[in-house]
Amino acid sequence: MDKTLHIVGGGMAGAEAAWQAAEAGIDVVLHEMRPKVETFAHQTGNLAEMVCSNSFRSDDDEQNAVGLLHWEMRAANGLIMTSADQHKLPAGGALAVDRDAFSDWITNRLQGHPKVTVALGEITALPDGGHWIFATGPLTSSDLGAAIAQETGKDALAFFDAIAPIVYFDSIDMSRAWMQSRYDKGETEEERTAYLNCPMDKDQYEAFIDALLSADKTEFHEGETAGYFDGCLPIEVMAERGRETLRHGPMKPVGLTNPHQPEIKAHAVVQLRRDNKLGTLFNIVGFQTKMKYGAQTDVFRMIPGLENAKFARLGGIHRNTFLNSPTLLDSQMRLRSRPHIRFAGQITGVEGYVESAAMGLVAGRMAAAEILGHEIAPPPPTTAMGALITHITGGAEAKTFQPMNVNFGLFPPLEGVKGGRRGRKDRYKAYTDRAKIDMADWLRAQPLPA
Length: 450
What we know:
- Its EC number is 2.1.1.74.
- The chain is of the alpha+beta class and about 450 residues long.
- Helix content is about 30%, strand content about 15%.
- It folds into 2 domains: about 5-155 and about 325-445, FAD/NAD(P)-binding domain (3-Layer(bba) Sandwich), CATH 3.50.50; about 160-315, Elongation Factor Tu (Ef-tu), domain 3 (Beta Barrel), CATH 2.40.30.
- It has helices spanning about 10-25, 65-75, 80-85, 100-110, 140-150, 190, 200-215, 235-240, 295-300, 325-330, 355-370, 385-395, 425-445; strands at about 5-10, 30, 55-60, 90, 95, 115-120, 130-135, 155-165, 165-170, 180, 195-200, 270-275, 280-285, 310-315, 315-320, 335, 340-345.
């Protein structure tokens, strides 16, 4: 049998899977349809392009589940985390990256790897043999999506993902805005001033909410339903849930002091985060939207400091499909009906850049081991990677399965630790301490480079 591993999709999961398998000595063909076949969300033909936020969220590996996932991927020689660390931007306690430099570096590393061939072109059917990983993500092409749906015999599950706009820094009025991370969080001055803040008083906030609610929105096609992943809700959908929702969400005013008016407490604050190393681009944090383009410019220019804003990219919304993985995939992430095919990334029902890349990391290692004549067990469920895999391959309820970010609620409970809010800090530290030990043991036990 051919020992080559074919990976379909050059996003976060596919790029990471290709790297892990190639580093294990396996010949890899990475199939990517872009730029020959474009998508709504992608702007380039690069591998591992970041299409929404430029943030990998918290980097705290002692108190945060996604920070723990960062730690585990670094321990496993993860390509995505290596690039993220090399191209990081100030973001308080979060890990944000220069998106173009990040994907350029990954593209060059994979194209230059002696074991990797990047094949440009669309795969439209499921293969009958060989070794395959499908990591086509939320924008799986219609032909391939139809082939997957036909094979699984299940109706496609779908929700909608929204993208936040990006603003040119030199168009922001800094006489009204200021730089500060919430609660001055960060170890350096650069980290403590990582976010750009635009304050609103009560009247400005109420007018902004009115404009959001009345703005023209993108309509869905016949047969589509507006099911959203809660971690990526459009701001106008949040506003529809209550006029105070945004003020207690992405526009919360806490932990900030306006140096232009230090005696006045803002009613709400819009935050922007640096989107590139040069600091010429800033994305509006939490402002995913399905408003039409004309409405976006009108509404967002109501924000103090953004009255003359120029947009490098406006927001948008796109369909996001995923498998009912608990019924379709085994513990090795293989399609039960065609075990020579694995799935990885967002299409399996994980949500987020890091979660998607982590599933690619594990799938790449599992596929490489199988080709070499071994089988490696999934990561222990006490680890962040293992908790995610357990969730998508049987831990979740199939009837209500929805995309999931990594969180401590997916971890097996600990004995002898205090529950409730007061015991949270010690409990989270105990979760991460246990996970690091178990992850290190899992890596050492593999017949692959760690």
